[in-house]
Amino acid sequence: MAFCATHAAIVASVHSEVQNTAVVNLMRAAGARAGTEAYLAGHRKQAGHGAWSWDDGSPWDYISPLNDGLDSEGHSIQETKLAIHFKNRNGRVVAEWHDWQQGQATLGVICKIII
Protein backbone atom coordinates (compact mmCIF):
# COMPACT_ATOMS: atom_id res chain seq x y z
CA MET A 1 0.00 0.00 0.00
CA ALA A 2 1.11 3.54 -0.65
CA PHE A 3 1.83 4.37 3.00
CA CYS A 4 4.40 1.58 3.26
CA ALA A 5 6.00 2.52 -0.06
CA THR A 6 6.53 6.11 1.10
CA HIS A 7 8.58 4.68 3.98
CA ALA A 8 10.66 2.33 1.78
CA ALA A 9 8.69 -0.64 3.14
CA ILE A 10 6.13 -3.20 2.02
CA VAL A 11 2.93 -4.44 3.66
CA ALA A 12 3.84 -7.15 6.17
CA SER A 13 3.37 -10.86 5.70
CA VAL A 14 3.37 -13.12 8.77
CA HIS A 15 4.99 -16.56 8.77
CA SER A 16 5.00 -17.77 12.37
CA GLU A 17 3.39 -17.39 15.78
CA VAL A 18 6.49 -15.43 16.86
CA GLN A 19 6.00 -12.91 14.03
CA ASN A 20 2.25 -12.69 14.67
CA THR A 21 2.85 -12.05 18.38
CA ALA A 22 5.43 -9.37 17.52
CA VAL A 23 2.94 -7.59 15.21
CA VAL A 24 0.17 -7.75 17.83
CA ASN A 25 2.52 -6.49 20.56
CA LEU A 26 3.66 -3.57 18.36
CA MET A 27 0.04 -2.67 17.70
CA ARG A 28 -0.79 -2.85 21.42
CA ALA A 29 2.23 -0.64 22.21
CA ALA A 30 0.91 1.87 19.65
CA GLY A 31 -2.44 1.97 21.46
CA ALA A 32 -4.51 -0.74 19.74
CA ARG A 33 -7.80 -1.44 21.50
CA ALA A 34 -11.11 -3.10 20.65
CA GLY A 35 -12.12 -1.83 17.22
CA THR A 36 -8.56 -1.26 15.98
CA GLU A 37 -7.89 -2.84 12.59
CA ALA A 38 -4.93 -2.91 10.22
CA TYR A 39 -4.22 -4.56 6.90
CA LEU A 40 -1.64 -7.30 6.44
CA ALA A 41 -0.31 -8.26 2.99
CA GLY A 42 -2.66 -11.21 2.51
CA HIS A 43 -5.22 -11.47 -0.23
CA ARG A 44 -7.60 -14.18 -1.36
CA LYS A 45 -6.50 -15.64 -4.68
CA GLN A 46 -10.12 -15.97 -5.81
CA ALA A 47 -12.72 -13.53 -4.49
CA GLY A 48 -15.16 -15.02 -2.02
CA HIS A 49 -13.42 -18.35 -1.40
CA GLY A 50 -10.27 -20.30 -1.95
CA ALA A 51 -6.65 -20.05 -0.96
CA TRP A 52 -4.84 -17.03 0.42
CA SER A 53 -1.48 -15.67 -0.67
CA TRP A 54 0.94 -12.97 0.43
CA ASP A 55 1.39 -9.88 -1.75
CA ASP A 56 5.18 -10.15 -1.44
CA GLY A 57 5.17 -13.59 -3.09
CA SER A 58 6.34 -15.43 0.02
CA PRO A 59 4.67 -18.77 0.85
CA TRP A 60 1.39 -18.87 2.79
CA ASP A 61 2.86 -21.05 5.55
CA TYR A 62 1.09 -19.78 8.67
CA ILE A 63 -2.39 -18.75 9.74
CA SER A 64 -3.21 -17.31 13.13
CA PRO A 65 -5.22 -19.73 15.28
CA LEU A 66 -7.34 -16.69 16.18
CA ASN A 67 -9.06 -16.05 12.87
CA ASP A 68 -12.55 -15.38 11.61
CA GLY A 69 -12.97 -18.40 9.35
CA LEU A 70 -10.32 -17.53 6.78
CA ASP A 71 -10.18 -21.16 5.68
CA SER A 72 -13.93 -21.53 5.14
CA GLU A 73 -15.93 -21.22 1.95
CA GLY A 74 -18.87 -18.98 1.20
CA HIS A 75 -17.56 -15.63 2.36
CA SER A 76 -18.71 -12.48 0.64
CA ILE A 77 -17.36 -12.12 -2.86
CA GLN A 78 -15.95 -8.75 -1.73
CA GLU A 79 -13.86 -10.13 1.14
CA THR A 80 -10.45 -10.39 -0.49
CA LYS A 81 -8.09 -8.63 1.95
CA LEU A 82 -6.59 -9.69 5.28
CA ALA A 83 -6.64 -7.55 8.42
CA ILE A 84 -5.81 -7.90 12.10
CA HIS A 85 -8.90 -6.98 14.11
CA PHE A 86 -8.84 -6.26 17.86
CA LYS A 87 -12.12 -7.22 19.51
CA ASN A 88 -13.61 -7.97 22.91
CA ARG A 89 -13.92 -11.67 23.64
CA ASN A 90 -15.04 -12.88 27.06
CA GLY A 91 -13.95 -9.67 28.78
CA ARG A 92 -10.52 -9.34 27.18
CA VAL A 93 -9.27 -7.75 23.99
CA VAL A 94 -7.88 -10.26 21.48
CA ALA A 95 -6.36 -9.79 18.04
CA GLU A 96 -7.69 -12.08 15.32
CA TRP A 97 -7.16 -12.27 11.59
CA HIS A 98 -10.22 -11.30 9.61
CA ASP A 99 -11.06 -11.27 5.93
CA TRP A 100 -12.04 -7.80 4.87
CA GLN A 101 -13.73 -6.14 1.96
CA GLN A 102 -11.41 -4.11 -0.17
CA GLY A 103 -12.49 -0.49 0.10
CA GLN A 104 -15.03 -1.22 2.86
CA ALA A 105 -13.23 0.93 5.41
CA THR A 106 -10.07 2.90 5.91
CA LEU A 107 -7.82 0.71 8.03
CA GLY A 108 -4.29 1.07 9.27
CA VAL A 109 -1.56 -0.98 7.68
CA ILE A 110 1.34 -3.04 9.05
CA CYS A 111 4.55 -2.36 7.12
CA LYS A 112 7.88 -4.14 7.15
CA ILE A 113 11.27 -2.99 5.98
CA ILE A 114 13.45 -5.54 4.23
CA ILE A 115 17.04 -5.19 5.44
Q: What portion of the residues fall into strands of 2 or more residues?
A: 35-45%
Strand runs, count: 7
Give the mean pLDDT. Answer: 84
The N- and C-terminal alpha carbons lie at a distance of 19 Å
Task: Describe what you observe in this structure.
The protein has 115 residues and is mainly beta. Helix content is 15%, strand content 37%. The chain has two helices and seven strands. The chain has helices spanning 2-5, 17-29, and strands at residues 10-11, 37-46, 49-54, 79-89, 92-101, 108-109, 111-112. Strands 2, 3, 4, 5 and 6 form a five-stranded mixed sheet that branches. A two-stranded antiparallel sheet has the order 1-7. A hairpin with a 2-residue loop joins strand 2 (37-46) and strand 3. The mean pLDDT is 84.
Summarize the structure.
With 115 residues, this protein is mostly beta strands. It has helices at 2-5, 17-29; strands at residues 10-11, 37-46, 49-54, 79-89, 92-101, 108-109, 111-112. Strands 2, 3, 4, 5 and 6 form a five-stranded mixed sheet that branches. It has a two-stranded antiparallel ribbon with strand order 1-7.
Notable features of this structure?
115 residues; 7 strands; mainly beta; 2 helices; two-stranded antiparallel sheet; single chain
Task: Describe the secondary-structure layout.
Elements: H1 2-5, E1 10-11, H2 17-29, E2 37-46, E3 49-54, E4 79-89, E5 92-101, E6 108-109, E7 111-112
Parallel strand pairs: 2-6
Antiparallel strand pairs: 1-7, 2-3, 2-4, 4-5
